Amino acid sequence: MSLNRATKRNNPKANYDQELREEIHRLSFRYPRFGYRKIFNKLKESDWKVGRERVRLIRKQEGLQVIKKQKKKRLLGKSTTKLSKALYPNHVWSYDLVSDQTACGRRIRCLTVIDEYTRYG
């Protein structure tokens, strides 16, 4: 055959690309903590012929992101009782240790004590 190269059109692998996108979606929802590298490794294990950068671009186009772990709320200290509200003078007292620095560079530490009801310290 004597055809010019420009006359023959090569259809891109649209079906293959669509199947690949579906597989990436499936793996991304099955493993929500996997990034594009681990998804790429899973695809390689499943005998898909695809590059790592291609997987990254498809995930970016599809808006697939790794779900971040939420940090656990950490309690600052152990409290044996509930915070009590002062009902009368001398019922609840609070204290705090405050430290500061003077103009000449010396360190000052103060213990502040206050009555919660009267706010007198």
Q: Would you mind describing this structure in some detail?
A:
- The protein is α+β, with helices and mostly antiparallel strands and 121 residues long.
- The chain has helices at 14-30, 36-45, 52-62, and strands at residues 93-101, 107-115.
- The chain has 2 domains: 12-62; 83-121, no CATH class.
- The protein has 3 helices and 2 strands, in the order αααββ.
- It has a two-stranded antiparallel ribbon.
- A hairpin with a 5-residue loop joins β1 and β2.
- It is elongated and about 105 Å long.
- The N and C termini lie far apart (102 Å).
- 8% of the residues are buried.
Low-confidence segments: none
> Strands across the major sheet, in which order?
1-2
* Rg on CA atoms, Å: 33 Å
* Whole-number mean pLDDT: 87
Helix content: 25-40%
Question: What profile does the largest beta sheet have?
Answer: 2 strands, antiparallel
Number-wise, the strands total: 2
Number of helices: 3
Order of helices and strands: HHHEE
Distance between the termini: 102 Å
Tell me the fraction of residues in β-strands, as a range: 5-15%
Q: Specify the overall morphology.
A: elongated
Domain module tally: 2
- List the quaternary state of the chains: single chain
- Category from helices, strands and their pairing: alpha+beta
